[in-house]
Amino acid sequence: MLAPHPFGHNITEQTLVESFSGLRQWEDRYRQLILMAKNVPTLDGSLKTPETELSGCENKVWLGAELLENGNMHFYGDSEGRIVKGLLAILLTKVEGKTPQAILADDPLILFDTLGLREQLSTSRASGLKALSEGVRQLARKAL
After folding, report:
1. Which residue from 55, 80, 113, 134 has the fewest beta carbons nearer than 10 Å?
2. Which letter does DSSP use for residue 70 in this model?
3. 57 among known catalytic residues
């Protein structure tokens, strides 16, 4: 498996909900996003290619995936920005280990609503999050 990480395994949607549920202030959620970013391993330079670099994000972002033998997908990524990297961590938690069909049948951005994050994002970060989500969906379509 390329670029293993804890998202979708050790860090699950349930643990995210528990981590964010007590946070009422945006500043607290912001700090939690930065903590999430610290759990994203730095992507090896060989995986930071023009093919994995996403456009539409404020910071440089790389997103890749591989289809595993069991038919599930493994996603990996990195970003130069801490907040974007935290958003990536949450997105990876939502989609990691699912089949391409399951990914395409679900809107991964709903988790950001559940965590109370999407409404607080600036326009440029919201646009970047949408680009991340679309990148995941494109990789899932490609895997079909």
Report:
1. 55
2. T
3. yes
